[in-house]
Amino acid sequence: MSLQGKVAIVTGSGRGLGLAYAQELARQGASVIINDVDEATAAEAVASIEQAGGTASAVVAPVGPTETAKKLVDAAYDTYGGLDIVVTNAGVLRDTVTWKMSDEDFDLVINVHLRGTFTVVREAATRMREAGTPGRIICIGSPTGQRGNFGQTNYAAAKAGIAGMVRTWALEFKKAGITANVVIPVAATAMTATVPYFAAAVEADAKGEPMPSFFRHDLGFGTAADVAGLIAYLASDEASGITGQAIGIGGDRLQLWSHPEPVATAYRDGGWTYESLREGFAEAVGELQSVGETFPPLPEELQPRPQA
Question: Which stretches make up the Ketoreductase domain (predicted)?
Fold first, then answer.
């Protein structure tokens, strides 16, 4: 077990992807702090790990506040004597188009995803540096944060912000031997369960059957367990040289996302005026960048069937 003796915190790990991450870290030998807002859900998650021979305990609290971050990190040190791995997975959704999005919808998503990631990582990195621990920070991003998605202004902002923080943390934490990466999962979740396009894959997963190859290979869409291996790998000593990266995973597919880089550069003596941009912008920059994700048509046999 490559993580034997390590201690991990996984936020939002009562169910879904977070639970899969926690279970895999425990399977690899780590002692895990489970986090959820519901006490019964957290207790079930702990029990699932202990029944499999692993070690876990729970902190029931919403991420976002600094107080929760301190509780999580204190629990790791007080219960297991240290902290080596942090996975910031906790999140909520409040999807709606911008003109219908309330302040509360925006603030809640930003608070849980973005502020929750920041406060937990700040507390963990501070303690790791003090202890001289070469830790692993693994944050969870989304294709929405990389590409945008209709109806997800709040979520896109939070996930893009997480990727930006990770690139900064890779620089700030390097001297302390702490790596920071963002994982971009594509998997069956409560959110994708409501999307007709993924119905055949979600149905197969719910039945414990293999997902059709179209989803696993062509779309890189799989199960929570498909993502968990990357989490454990990035948490290991073998991944000590990987930091500041955005890594996508889902189904049979592994991807390394690029950092934002200029794709076209043009110069004009004296600078670019309004008039010169009107005349030369298109030629100077070339083809514009696309936004959002597009999916190929579903094969006939995988298309949702009308309800009788």
Answer: 6-190
